[in-house]
Amino acid sequence: MTPDLMHAGAQRLARHEENLANRAQEGTGGSASYGRLIQHPDQLDVSHGRILYLEDVSVSFDGFKAINNLSLDIAPGELRCIIGPNGAGKTTMMDIITGKTRPDSGTVFFGSTIDLLRYNEPQIAQLGIGRKFQKPTVFEQLTVVENLELALKTDKRFQASMRFRLNAEHTDRLLEVMSAIHLQSHARQLAGVLSHGQKQWLEIGMLLMQEPKLLLLDEPVAGMTDHETERTAELFLSLKGKHSLMVVEHDMSFIRAISDIVTVLCDGAVLAQGSLDEVQADERVIEVYLGR
Ligand SMILES: Nc1ncnc2c1ncn2[C@@H]1O[C@H](COP(=O)(O)OP(=O)(O)OP(=O)(O)O)[C@@H](O)[C@H]1O
Ligand SMILES: [Mg+2]
Questions:
Q1: CB-CB contact of 52 with 214 (8 Å)
Q2: Nearest to residue 271, comparing CAs of 253, 260, 286?
Q3: How many CB atoms lie within 10 A of CB 186?
Q4: What confidence tier does 23 reach under pLDDT thresholds 50, 70, 90?
Q5: What's this model's pTM, rounded to 2 decimal places?
Q6: Residue nearest atom 9 in ligand 1 by C-alpha distance
Q7: Is CB count within 10 Å lower at the N or C end of the chain?
Q8: How far, in Å, from the CA of 87 to the mean position of ligand 2?
Q9: More confident of the two residues 5 and 225
């Protein structure tokens, strides 16, 4: 083992022990600590340099290990790219982080104190983790602005939703997001008439309205034109730093445009990690990508 790996391992162990101590302090699933975290997601503690931390996570479906002792962490503000062959477990990993799938074992932390395995899907979204699925899911009968406004209405109950009023801060954010996703000139257009790429941007915009700390994006440029793909790369580069991003993609030119560290998943675990050039030169990676 290299000194780097040993150092990283020691740090990981120390973090894990601290997490366990924090968990013990909070009690084992007491509703008081649970509620407190949900009400104050701004208290996300990233002082240990990690916004997302997975260790030894496994999940099986009918005896098949889709995620197999997966360990991975992401720094605040980082834009991490995840690549890997079909069936590697990329989407399943996002399902676990967002509470859609419960792992059989392992640790999943948001910052150093929030144990994500104690929360359900809507609570995890409320904590500041936004997720974009592959297919755009915008409201086609509403305009671009209405879609973005709707994303602000976190209390979806009808009465609360009817009482909702945009304040100046919301309006500023709406304008900022609309400019970032290049849809200012389409503000009053129905979402249904937008191109596939524009719908994808709108959905990303809807996530941004909620000011997520971590964004998970699963194959965001699939089906986009080359021009839309380039603009999406610019958008993601502009988001990093302010947000942390985990981007799963098969489009290598897109990955090349946005990536710092690339993690290669295969058979539910990390096969390689490094710059795109480094992982592409890795024999094991070449083997699993052969023919792609
Ligand atoms: N709910 C489920 N029930 C049974 N098997 C599942 C379930 N979800 C995922 N799998 C299996 O787990 C494995 C990993 O699937 P996953 O969708 O995570 O792969 P992926 O890396 O996202 O692939 P792709 O690049 O094709 O999107 C696959 O073999 C898949 O069939
Ligand atoms: Mg997938």
A1: yes
A2: 286
A3: 20
A4: very low
A5: 0.83
A6: 92
A7: N
A8: 7
A9: 225
* 188 exposure class (CB count in 10 Å sphere: 0-12, 13-18, 19+): exposed
All structural domains of the chain, each given as residue ranges with its CATH number in brackets, are 3-289 (3.40.50.300)
How many angstroms does the Cα of residue 23 sit away from the middle of ligand 2?
Answer: 32
CB-count burial class (<10 Å; 0-12, 13-18, 19+) for 114: buried
Written as six digits, the tokens of 283 are 């024999």
pLDDT score for 19: 46
The larger pLDDT score, comparing residue 36 to residue 49, is at: 49
DSSP E strand boundaries for the chain? 52-61, 64-74, 79-83, 105-110, 114-115, 129-132, 214-218, 244-248, 262-266, 269-274
Q: Quickly count: other Cβ atoms within 10 Å of residue 199's Cβ.
A: 21
Count helices and strands (H / E) in the chain.
Answer: 12, 10
| pLDDT given at position 157 | 52
Q: Per-residue pLDDT tens for 272-292?
A: 999 999 999 999 999 987 655
CA distance 118 to 109: 10
Dist CA 42 CA 50 (whole Å): 15
Enumerate residues 6+ apart whose C-beta is below 8 A from 27.
33
